[in-house]
Design brief:
With 254 residues, the protein is an alpha/beta fold. It contains seven helices and 16 strands. The chain has one domain: Metallo-beta-lactamase, Chain A (4-Layer Sandwich), CATH 3.60.15.10. The longest helix has 10 residues. The chain starts with a strand and ends in a 7-residue tail after the last strand.
Length: 254
Amino acid sequence: MRLQLLRNATLKLVYAGRTLLIDPDFGPMHGRPSFTGKSANPMVELPEPIESILDGVDQVIVSHLHSDHFDSVAKERIPKYLPLSCRPGDEDKIAEAGFQSVTPVECFQRIGPIILKRVPAQHGSGAVVEKMGPVMGFSLEAPGEPTLYWCGDSILYPPLLEAVSATAPDVIVSHSCGALWDNILIVMDDAQTLALCEAAPEAVVIATHMEALDHASVSRAALRKSAEQHGIGLERLLIPRDGETIEIREPARV
């Protein structure tokens, strides 16, 4: 498994011989409005050209239709013939953008040797969940590869913890910037990320979705400091920079 964090939630993942592009946001720095008045979004540029990002991609996965996960530039630039997996209910809007092979993941989908399973995700709590709308997480399994659990835009809540326990993943990707909406947490913050590490002590957690949007409340440095204070070391919690590539071979147990 080779995972490259591009920016925010956008990942390029080489897994079981396939190259997957996850939640593509290709917009230029400051190309969209601010959420909080602090800065236009995204706050940083992509670490490499879009042509390079798209090189070799076999499959696209879109967890939901918020612009920081599937923006207008990505809709324009991604070849429309590429197969795309999405949350049930989003397929019509994606097809309207011209994509020719869109599969809503009701339960699971086979992508060659890969089994992609949809898992629970909740984009906040209370009234803000309705404002954010439904989202999905997913897991990936394939022979000879570590099992990957991608939390998506979700807080840490009981169904997610139950799904993590049932999946027993080797690698977990979290969204850990502590983004707020109406002062309510809509993705994991540092405390929830550390609780996730403690709930899955044999997994490597990779914290992403950081330092790209102006409604975030947790920086990479703050998360690392919190982890160190709780005795969670570099081998358990990885916090990649934009553009950084992480390679994990089977088994990934720590």
